[in-house]
Amino acid sequence: MKKKNNEPDPAAVPGLFGDIIPSPAPPRKDGLLSFSYSKMSLYEECPLKYKFKYIDKIKEEPKFYFAFGNSIHTALEFLYSVKAPPFPSLEELLEAFRQDWNQKSYLEKGYRAPQKAEDDYQKGLAMLKAYYEHNRAAFKPPFLVEYSTDVEVDGLLVRTISDRIEHLGGGEIVIIDYKTGKDVKRQPLQLYMYQKISELDPRLKEKIAETYGQRVSAVKVRQLLYYHVPTLKEYTFERADDKEIGGFWERVLGVADAIKGLKFDPTPGERACAWCDYKSLCPHFFGGQPRPAAQPAAVTDNIEVLVDRYGRLKEKMEEIQAQLAEVADSIGRSARDGGEYAGSSYTAQVKKSSRWEFRDREAVIGVLNQFDLYKKALSLTLTGITGVLESDDLPEAARKKLLDQAVKKTGYDIKITKKPGA
Ligand code: SF4
Questions:
Q1: Mutate-to-test residue for ligand 1 from 273, 280, 285, 286, highest number of ligand atoms within 8 A of CB
Q2: Which of 138, 177, 203, 419 has the least C-beta neighbours within 10 A?
């Protein structure tokens, strides 16, 4: 479901920390926008989610399926990181998996219960054992393993990470991507991204020359192969044609332009929101629950009349607000430490108050992430951050870092009541 035009702009929702200190610009390196297939798919899923993750850099909850997939990938990377036979033994492969798996507790990996983590651990061992037995006769040193590259193109710095690349000769390559989920679906955009970037990557030609002593004029992706580790099945996809790649690239540039133009309106969707860790920050949710549908404003006049009326009221309101601020300031100065004061028609309870303001939004988010305080803040409102800063159990190092970003402002709360009969 797309955001409707009459829904509020999230940047204008009062109380969001983002209103007080503007959001930073999208991350750029040497003037290039850093980009990847996962960034693109997240932006297309929900631009606001993209912003929370890649611009505000707010950590997501750990996901057990990523932890599991990462440990399998690490073990396979270890297996294929040989320049010449012999390959590691099965026991060494399983040990590589074990070591990676044991680096984090089950909670840090995103499991809710230790038994589920243990089940996945056993599943991982069995999966790798089956992989080893199934493929051992065909083991040969690969061309590249876990090959990460950043390629500059059209104002973007695009990163791809290939699990394994095989060179077929003459500059033709096959890219292998391990899949560890339940099933394998063709992901055309991922295929196109691999093809486009690999064929533009000058380092690949150099690597072919270094490894095989062959000078090639161009690199061509012959196939992309998804290897589904749980079932030991291979799914091969032939290279895309120029038309498909051209259409895909237009889409990439469209997403990049929207990011550069700071277009981060949320696009809530049942599936995207169900798995979103940012619900407590999202203007479409109240405390994690969907916002009730907005009631359409009653229209009693034509729009031209309403526009003028709105403008006049707004002007009047601004004038009154300025006067109110001035009078409140004078009352505050006269009342000093507060108290109760009476005029002929009204009584005022004056209370001295102070509040924190924070200078640098990104720095504050950095502190919350560093000390894992993000949940404690509940939301990125001034109240949430102030609550963290003033809590008794806040680590001193975190308090010091937050105080570096904080300024204390003094003001007066004035509660006014009308005298009976006035
Ligand atoms: S909760 Fe839904 S709309 Fe809000 S940021 Fe997440 S995915 Fe987007």
A1: 273
A2: 138
- Asked whether residue 196 is domain-assigned, the answer is yes
Number of domains forming the structure of the chain: 1
User: How many other C-beta atoms can be found within 10 angstroms of the C-beta atom of residue 350?
Assistant: 21
d(Cα 311, Cα 313) in Å, to the nearest integer? 6
Task: Tell me the ipTM for this assembly.
Answer: 0.99
Res 381 pLDDT > 90 = no
Determine, yes or no, domain membership for 98. no
3-state secondary structure of 63: coil
**Nearest-atom index, ligand 1, CA of 273:** 2
Confidence at residue 145, expressed as pLDDT on a 0 to 100 scale: 96
What residues are in contact with ligand 1 under a 6 Å CB criterion?
46, 48-49, 266, 268, 272-273, 276, 278-279, 282, 284-285
Q: What is the domain extent for residue 158?
A: 146-232
Nearest Cα residue to atom 3 of ligand 1: 268
Q: Say how many C-beta atoms besides its own lie within 10 A of residue 231's C-beta.
A: 13
Which tokens belong to 118?
A: 């243990």
d(CA 255, CA 155): 13
